[in-house]
Amino acid sequence: DLKPEERTELSAILRNRRAELEFELGKAYLAKREYANASQCFRKANTLRRSWKTEIAFWISYFSPRLMQVLLSRRTQANNQTDEGGASR
Predict the structure, then answer these.
(1) Mean of the per-residue pLDDT values for the chain?
(2) From 33, 49, 66, 76, which residue has the greatest number of CB atoms within 10 Å?
(3) Alpha-carbon distance 26 to 47, whole Å?
(4) What is the 3-state secondary structure (H, E, C) of the chain?
């Protein structure tokens, strides 16, 4: 059985992990052009753990899902180029 402090700490860890999962699911839905699902996931992520990143992701995916998809695609391409070349291009 967990002590109250441990339970509180574990709850916070699980909430943060769930927020990360929802954010990643949102990105996956964007890639598949399932914009409503993506927006919903970003909203859940932001509710679980508020940050400027999740807030912006939610609002852009809500008002301009195609823009969010383009931004995500460019970031993925940039990350892939960095991984392949060892340095960013």
Answers:
(1) 90
(2) 49
(3) 14
(4) CCCHHHHHHHHHHHHHHHHHHHHHHHHHHHHCCCHHHHHHHHHHHHHHCCCHHHHHHHHHHHHCHHHHHHHHHHHHHHHHHHHHHCCCC
- 61 close to 68: Cβ distance less than 8 angstroms: yes
C-alpha to C-alpha distance for 78 and 85, rounded to whole angstroms:
11
Would you state the structure tokens that stand for residue 46, as one six-digit string?
Answer: 């932001």
- Write out the H or E segment, with its range, that includes residue 51: none
Q: What pLDDT was estimated at residue 40?
A: 95
